Amino acid sequence: MKRLVAGLSMLIYLLGICYSSAYCQTNNGGLGKVVSKLKSYSSEHLVEKTYLHFDKPYYVAGDTIYFKAYVTLGEKHQPSGLSGVLHVDLINTIGKIDQSIKLQISNGLTWGDFALPDSLPKGDYRVRAYTQWMRNEGDDGYFNQTIPVGSANKDKVLESSTTRKAANIKPDLQFFPEGGELVTGVSSKVAFKAVGADGLGVKVDGVVLDNTGNEVCKFTAAHLGMGYFYLTPELGKTYKARITYANGDHDTADLPLSSPNGIMLSINNDAVDSAPLKIIANESYFTENRDKIIGLIVYSGGVATTVPIKLDSAIIHLAILKRHLYPGITKVTLFSATGEPLSERLIFIQRPDQLNLAIDPDKTGYHTHEKVHININASNRADSAVSGHFSVSVIDEGKVPVDENSEITIDNYLLLTSELKGRIEQPNYYFTNVNDETRANLDLVMLTHGYRRFEWKRLLNNGYAPIAFQPERGLEITGVAKNLSDKPIANGTVSLIPMHSGSFMKTVTDDRGRFRFSNLTFSDTDKFILQAVNAKGKNNTRLTYDKDAPEPVIIAPAFAGNNHIDQLMSAYMDNSVKQQEDIARYGGFKGRFLKNITIKDKKTTDISTHPDLVSPQFADQVVTRDALEKSGEPTLSGRLLGKLHGFAVNPFNGRSSAGLIVVDGVEQPPEFMLDDINPNDVESVAALVYAGSSGIYGVRGGHGVLVITTRQGKGLDSKDIASIGVLPISPKGFYKAREFYSPKYDIAAPANNRTDYRTTIYWKPEMATDKDGSTSFEYYNADGPGTYRLVIEGIDEKGNIGRQVYRYKVE
User: Fold this and answer.
1) Cα–Cα distance, 608 to 524 (Å, whole number)
2) What is the rounded CA–CA span in Å between residue 524 and residue 517?
């Protein structure tokens, strides 16, 4: 008992006093070397993460995927000021990038969207987000989320060549001794995890047998294929498991061999306030190392705390006080006197929400079409007002059922799944309705998944590659200048001239003829001219512009279809079918539904606020990408010539008779020409000819509207573009996010026959609380009665995370 109290007091002192320092030094040479290596690694490998909050968990073809991105820096998850550009890709079911956009990051925040074509095949798509700095960690450091997409066209399905068939692969069972290895003569907790061919945990039972055939113990999975049992290995014996799976299949698996001369640590993480810890040496190890100084390093939130310990007993008791640790994963490692890692254990520090988000609606229940007003107040654990940034989504749960356990959220991603190796099934289960059972099952996750941030042996042996990618502060335009004999021009001058507005810039080529314009800010619609002269001022140069290309896709193994998601999506698909039937019955909006809607008067009408307005059902005519590509003409006007009914197109000057041209939801100025757009970038051209369709654009729409939707990078020619002396370019700039369409109902207006089938009722990607921690918003309910689900999540400037779910009834 005295040793327990002494050890506890020591650890209280170290964690309470030294905690304010990033790395607490010690006189122990071995631990000092370890801490020095860790400090050097951490200063060079700053941790940058990005998390995306989506408006809903799945979609159908024709929908728009809306998202907010939170980019954090460091292991305290503070909003990042390191990177200025976020790359976001929509990857299809066969591992190809369908759409790719760049977003400008400001104070660690940005938002965007992907418009899904009506022709999109159904399947599991993936949204990937990363910064250039995150590329140093490889694909494992990127944000990746599977996005199921349904389609009314059941014949269009992309099958992945890597799809794994459950019938051909038996479940995989692995054993994980606590601390890292079994030690002869020491009772050890052995965790296990059984995974099926679909990547999900499977029910398993079994018995452990020694090499003589005697039964040692029984085990059974407690949660998602995970469980544990205790085993005390005997000298000279080996062990195996005889397994029975839920489907009746049988198998055997060998357990890890035990070390005849070893030491291990064991941590009980059941309690809320502290975690008792035992260091246990077997007889052989204790005899050999008695009274030597060993040590612990407790690594939490980027802080390494060292605890030197004299091995004067075969069993040493300590305790870790959780209030001194940061929320998330704490890594506890036992080291030898020379700094060699001996045993390691991960524990999860779980506290109530770091931020309390109080949701205060103006009513407890509402009617369809009724206005909803919501007040939000954010405070920290000390009940002080918090200035933070948040995003909010409201969905109709009757149309979009949600599996809360499987949701990827801002807290379970930043604190859990992004820190561990392997797939974490149902990550939100551990954060919703936290109790003794969920905490125990979360500890099984800690025992069966490895820490991803760093490995001690690799770190101590300088096994990490040097930094290859620097932070991307802004956009870049690069290329090479050569003479007509194809030799690089050194010390040549390259000018970058905006075609519409802005100041031009100059730079000088290096000895390889390379030029670079860095830290630029421009949009996707901006165009430039590159001009070059050699060192003597002659323009007999050949310019080559480096076309931008997304990071190559690493195709992860595809799993068999998720029937659970298919079942959830059935209600969503039924709603979509009803919506299409209503469109056919009433001819789309055509002025009917809009009688009940007020659109804010503004200089430009952003049709992306309601992408359905440009779908084939609502336009008077749509020219698809396939029809455009068949033409083979080099310009968009040439490809549209003779294909538009009601509009004249002049291929000589790139103009049309349309009164208004809208590109990706943005109205273009009168001087805009069709040939300002690369025809290979165009997904569709919708023609709104008659007043019933074009009238929603007001006076300018009176002479007809052409709505052009681009492919956002899909199918672009990856070859470089070359030109002599002068080169016009259209580099990929920052994407302008669409504004979510939220109707305003006029209660006094007469009812119409059209149903409001919205599934996402409201989406607002950016809301900032004021100095009092308050903000508010309002919107109108749709026609669907039932339960509406409001989710708000976000972060403050210190990296404290907040998330809240609120439900209300609509009658």
Assistant:
1) 15
2) 17
Alpha-carbon gap, residue 584 to 592, rounded angstroms: 13
Residue 791: name the closest of 371, 367, 390, 425 by CA. Answer: 390
Coil, helix or strand at residue 746: coil
Q: How far apart are CA 358 and CA 379, in angstroms?
A: 8
> Can you tell me the distance from the alpha carbon of 423 to that of 763, in angstroms, rounded to the nearest whole number?
29
pLDDT at 530 over 50: yes
Question: What six digits make up the tokens of 800?
Answer: 């404290």
Phi, psi of 567 (to 5 degrees): -65, -40
How do 123-130 and 143-150 pair as beta strands?
antiparallel
What is the C-alpha separation between 422 and 399, in angstroms, rounded? 32
| Sign, CA torsion 382/386/390/395 | positive
Strands, sheet with 188-195, edge to edge from the N-terminal-most edge strand: 172-177, 188-195, 226-231
What is d(CA 371, CA 593) in angstroms, rounded to the nearest whole number? Answer: 17
List, as one string, the DSSP characters of 89-117.
Answer: EEE-TTS-EEEEEEEE-BTTEEEEEEEPP
Q: Give the Cα separation of 805 and 206 in Å (integer).
A: 40
The DSSP bridge partners found for residue 366 are 810
The predicted-structure confidence for 177-226, as pLDDT tens digits, reads as follows 999 999 999 999 999 999 998 889 999 999 999 999 999 999 999 999 99
Given strand 774-780, what is the order of strands in its sheet? 355-361, 371-380, 774-780
Q: Which residue is listed with tokens 């400037």?
A: 797
**By three-state DSSP, how is residue 7 classified?**
helix
Burial of 584 (0-12, 13-18, 19+ CB in 10 A): exposed
Specify which residues 713 forms β-bridges with: none
**How high is the pLDDT of residue 560?**
38
Report the candidate in 174, 187, 460, 185 with the shortest Cα–Cα distance to residue 342.
460
- Contact between 55 and 66 under an 8 Å Cβ cutoff? The reply is yes
Q: What are the beta bridge partners of residue 529?
A: 497, 728
Instruction: Report angle CA 201, 206, 207 to the nearest 5 degrees.
Output: 150
> Contact, 55 vs 395, CB < 8 A?
yes
Report the length, in residues, of the chain.
811
pTM: 0.81
DSSP per-residue codes, 265-328: EEE---SSSEEEEEEEE-HHHHHHHTT-EEEEEEEETTEEEEEEEE--SSEEEEEEEGGGS-SE
CB 489 within 8 A of CB 509: yes
CA distance 269 to 420: 18
- Beta-strand (E) ranges in 499-584? 505-508, 514-520, 528-533, 541-545
What stretches of 546-630 adopt beta strand conformation (E)? 621-624
Edge to edge, the sheet with strand 274-281 lists: 263-267, 274-281, 315-321
What is the DSSP-derived secondary structure letter of residue 691? H
Closest CA to 522 of 495, 500, 506, 507: 500
Please list the residues that pair with 175 across neighbouring strands: 192
How far apart CA 642 and CA 649 sit, in angstroms, is 8
108's torsion region: left (phi>0), alpha (psi -120 to 50) or beta?
left
Q: What is the residue whose two structure tokens read 């080169």? A: 727
Instruction: For residue 414, count CB atoms less than 10 angstroms from its CB and return exposed for 0-12, middle for 13-18, buried for 19 or more.
Output: buried
CA dihedral 26, 29, 35, 40 (to 10 degrees): 130
The strand ranges marked E within 338-397 are: 341-349, 355-361, 365-366, 371-380, 388-396
Instruction: Look at phi and psi of residue 40 and say left if phi exceeds 0, alpha if psi is from -120 to 50, else beta.
Output: alpha
pLDDT at 266 over 90: yes
In angstroms, the CA 140 to CA 421 distance is 9
The model's pLDDT over 781-799, given as tens digits with 9 standing for 90+, comes to 998 899 999 999 999 999 9
Cα–Cα distances in Å, from 617 out to 272, 585, 613, 742? Answer: 57, 11, 8, 20
